[in-house]
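Record type: ASSEMBLY
Status: queued
Input:
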Amino acid sequence: QSALTQPASVSGSPGQSVTISCTGTTSDVGGYNYVSWYQQHPGEAPKLMIYEVTDRPSGVPDRFSGSRSGNTASLTISGLQAEDEADYYCSSYTISSNVLFGGGTKLTVL
Amino acid sequence: EVQLVESGGGLVQPGRSLRLSCTASRFISGFTFDDYTLSWVRQAPGKGLEWVGFLRYEAYSETAGYAASVKGRFTISRDDSKSIVYLQMNSLKTEDTGVYYCTRGLTALDPWGQGTLVTVSS
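Status: finished
Output:
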């Protein structure tokens, strides 16, 4: 199975909104409500930001939101802040009973 | 707060074996180790995340699943009495080099350990 498709990089200015896409197939992103998003700062472990497509764990700011349309899931970060600069990864459960990650997107806050 | 701590990484030659351990704090904030599925995820230097495998808790009779890249070479096991999950890695290849993370869950991975570095090189 190939990794889920994410843009290599996105950028935005403080206060703006950015959206990161994650494209899969009906065998993963489009077929299960098990899409998650992770934030990873350099040298640190990943952190869960969104799970089950749209849900936020306790402690994650509501500036982070998830959605899905067909086989493409999206992470939107509104009111960008400097500390949001990081790598973001999507993941999805698959028809093969395993998990696929996206290739990762580097978010730059200008 | 639940904490996961990996150990056992290091330098190993191609074809050799290595066993990683992940110790979980237990009975904190209602977390009981043996109630949860546990997964391993790895990250090659400068690369993205790659799911390695998972092990379901005992009610599912220790069901495990593995990525195609490690199936037949890697085995995940657990010792619930010690709150430890293991990743036994055999027939290691240079492409297995990376930081290995232990994490709770399967579809929503949280929390994560700090990772342990495995370097496969001659």
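Annotation: The longest strand of chain B covers residues 18-24.
Annotation: Strands of chain B lie at 4-7, 10-12, 18-24, 38-43, 49-55, 64-66, 74-79, 84-89, 98-104, 116-120.
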